[in-house]
Design brief:
about 20% helix, three-stranded antiparallel β-sheet, about 30% strand, Immunoglobulin-like, alpha+beta
């Protein structure tokens, strides 16, 4: 059985129909893909070299049958493969991922700055330059008059550290946890000890003293660096 290939003029879907299903006068078809309707004339096997206009008799037959809809021999839910050259424009997945990463990085840089500064203190300078200051523990307090010595208490050697905290600002400041780092002659940190001062806050121009001991200090310890820790106080009192 000969097959005729029909192309929808609207969506360009192609269908195979039996040869002879479309008579000389043509018939009205409906695309099973886009539902477009049109009048289809038979397709000759070899188009003539000279196209002659249709005769008056043929025009009369076409006019008489054009308005009568005929169900084409192509079922709407047919499993015949249709080729439609329709390209769906979509944003490349790589671009979507890149934009998402950029937005996430910006939000993380802004709202995660306390964590960033905690791991990289030098980044606070960058935040200050762009107007996003990140408060650091004890930034308005001064540690002064620090003294460190070794002593024997009850047959146990301890490393004693004492000093003073001063609030030079005009506002009351919270007192963070104090951190003492033992370092050797090369500046390498050997051990770290944290101490919670008794006072939770310091009034303007107020000074308090602090002191703590570390048992069994490392023999290579030559100095102690006293700074403020970013640890949270569990209570308002020291120990």
């Amino acid at each position: 059985m000969d097959i005729m290939r029909i192309t929808c003029p609207e969506c360009f879907a192609q269908f195979d129909v039996p040869d002879g299903a479309i008579k000389e006068t043509g018939r009205k078809l409906r695309c099973g893909q886009c539902k477009y309707q049109w009048h289809q004339l038979p397709i000759p096997d070899e188009p003539p070299e000279i196209m002659e206009p249709p005769t008056k008799e043929l025009e009369t037959k076409i006019s008489a049958t054009y308005n009568d809809f005929e169900t084409p021999p192509i079922p709407e839910n047919s499993d015949i493969k249709a080729s439609a050259n329709i390209k769906t424009k979509s944003l490349p997945i790589g671009t979507i991922i890149l934009v998402t990463l950029i937005i996430t990085s910006i939000f993380g840089f802004i709202y995660g700055r306390p964590v960033i500064v905690a791991y990289a203190p030098s980044s606070s300078i960058l935040y200050d330059k762009i107007g996003l200051h990140v408060p650091v523990p004890g930034e308005f307090l001064v540690i002064k008059n620090v003294g460190v010595w070794r002593e024997n208490r009850g047959g146990m050697e301890v490393l004693a550290v004492k000093g003073e905290l001063f609030n030079p600002s005009e506002t009351t400041q919270e007192v963070p946890i104090i951190k003492g780092s033992e370092v050797d002659a090369t500046g390498r940190v050997l051990a770290t000890e944290s101490f919670i001062p008794e006072a939770a806050t310091l009034l303007p121009n107020e000074t308090i003293k602090f002191e703590y001991q570390t048992p069994f200090p490392d023999e290579k310890t030559v100095s102690v660096i006293v700074t403020f820790s970013d640890e949270k106080r569990n209570s308002q009192y020291g120990y």
